[in-house]
Amino acid sequence: MHALWYHRSARRFRTAGGRSRPAGPGRAAVIVDFRERTTIRRAALISLVALAACRGADAVRPAGGVEPEAMSGGAMTVFDSSARAFGLPGPGVAGAELAEHAAGDDAFEVPFVLAPAPVHPGLGPRFDNESCAGCHRNDGRGRPPAPGEPVASMLFRVSVPGANTHGGPLAAPGFGTQLELRAAPGLVPVAVMALQYSDSVVSLADGAADTLRVPHYAIGAPYRALPAGLMLSPRVAPPNFGLGLLEAVPASAIEALARAPAAVAAGVAGRANYVWDPTVQQTVLGRFGLKANVGSLLEQTARALNQDIGITSSLFPVEPCDDPIPGCAPHAFDAPDSLLRVLTAYVRTLGVPARRGVAAAAVRRGQALFASAGCALCHVPTLETGAVAGSPELSGQTIHPYTDLLLHDMGPGLADGRPDYLASGAEWRTPPLWGIGLTATVNGNVNFLHDGRARTLLEAILWHGGQGAAARDAVRRMSKADRDALIAFLMSL
Questions:
Q1: Interacting residues of 63 by C-beta distance below 8 A, sequence separation 6+
Q2: Containing domain of residue 425, as a range?
């Protein structure tokens, strides 16, 4: 067996082939055979529980107490503001749960390769990246490519008018629902994407101005003729942390936010997306994905493996290509269910970074401005999680994600024109804001919104239209001092 193992004392990750790289904090020695096609060997996991019983994160609460608002993730809050802030397990994650987290962490990092191969085979004949971490650097957000760079942490969803049997996007003939921009040797990618920007100057009420980047996308060198009516939706990879907590918010609570009196009165009430979840074979509330088009973390994990890397599984058994070549033909699953499980466990148990500087005067002032501008009507500050069997650290938590997980019409400026289940071409799910102030620290870039066009938080606000227009205009009317306070508040999240 080719084993992958962690050793906490050495704080290194190694493979049987001798390669090594740093391992994150709190990792126990855990052995998993990723070529296994059924389940993780429970005996091996049980024998490691004692080693994994340490706290999930090395970082501890600062002395002197913590403001309740700083506990963004409740019991899943981690007190680390370094480049690893998005990639730590929650402090309450321990025992077998922490062992699965560590195994999933490894699988998240290690690149897949073309089959046949002794380790991590199954990379698709066409794909967008070779590993999960290739899109989610340090478990954070992706970015659009700089001039001359290949597309690395951005993807392009496609479809044609109509809906599939479950009401979702209708696959584009020959292209599916996503453009794979990389290919195995001897093949060509399905297309080449070109990205250019033009400038749009926005004037603020105090005489200042800001320049927004307007993206323009072009599909070049398609491997076959593009179908008529092709709809294109560019998207950068979103952060991974806190997803287990968002999954634990009861669907009824999210649906109730669509009827919140203040949001209804202001004309900004969101609406739920309802999507087909193959993990339970039924329609459920959508809560993940940029258009709330995915219902569960297990589906999100399996779908990303399939569409982004070309990994087939019991949930998505078909390669995301339909060329008459052997690699696209039906074959045995690339990923065993055990791999889906540990990858899902990993993202489910990532902690949420604590807020910083909560009591600072500028932050408090900015928080009040955030509310008075109407931002909090959609970016709802506080949610409550329900009960999660076997995960007390996710259960009954008061969290501060700053989202309602609902769809909102953001106007023509941000519209992609591509429906996704009930989401129109102008609707997007309210993105959580927790951790947004650490984006530059964790990812080395500050590219916001669904396609990374905004280079600052102010630019992201100024792009708001539709149901976000009133809040945007309130910010435009602010003085520079008030805008600075608002940004200070956002940077504290």
A1: none
A2: 358-492
Residue 189 to residue 175: CA distance in whole angstroms:
11
Q: Write down the H helix ranges in 188-260.
A: 243-248, 251-257
| Helix orientation angle between 480-492 and 361-372, rounded to the nearest 10 degrees | 100
Q: Give domain status of residue 453, yes or no.
A: yes
180, part of any domain? no
When computed from its CA atoms, the radius of gyration of the chain, rounded to whole angstroms, is: 22
Residues 6+ apart with CB under 8 A from 145: 151, 152, 154, 195
Give me the tens of pLDDT residue by residue for the chain, a chain 493 residues long. Answer: 223 323 222 222 333 333 333 333 333 333 344 444 333 333 334 333 333 334 444 455 766 678 899 999 999 999 999 999 999 999 999 999 999 999 999 999 999 999 989 888 999 999 999 999 999 999 999 999 998 898 989 999 999 999 999 999 999 999 999 999 999 999 999 999 999 999 999 999 999 999 999 999 999 999 999 999 999 999 999 999 999 999 999 999 999 999 999 999 999 999 999 999 999 999 999 999 999 999 999 999 999 999 999 999 999 999 998 888 888 999 999 999 999 999 999 999 999 999 999 999 999 999 999 999 999 999 999 999 999 999 999 999 999 999 999 999 999 999 999 999 999 999 999 999 999 999 999 999 899 999 999 999 999 999 999 999 999 999 999 999 999 999 999 999 9
Phi, psi of 282 (to 5 degrees): -160, 170
3-class SS at 4? strand
Q: Is 254 helix (H, G, I), strand (E, B) or coil?
A: helix
* 426, containing H or E segment: none
d(CA 467, CA 271): 12
Is residue 111 classed exposed, middle or buried when 0-12, 13-18 and 19+ CB atoms within 10 A define those classes?
middle
Q: Is residue 257, in this structure, part of any structural domain at all?
A: no
Q: pTM for the whole thing?
A: 0.89
Report the number of distinct structural domains present in the chain. 1
H or E stretch covering 275: strand 273-277
List the CATH number of the domain containing 412.
1.10.760.10
Residue where the block lists tokens 């060997």: 41
> Residue 243 domain-assigned?
no
Residue 193: half-sphere exposure toward Cβ, Cα within 13 Å: 26
Taking residue 481's Cβ as centre, other Cβ atoms within 10 Å add up to 11
Question: Structure tokens of 90?
Answer: 């929650």
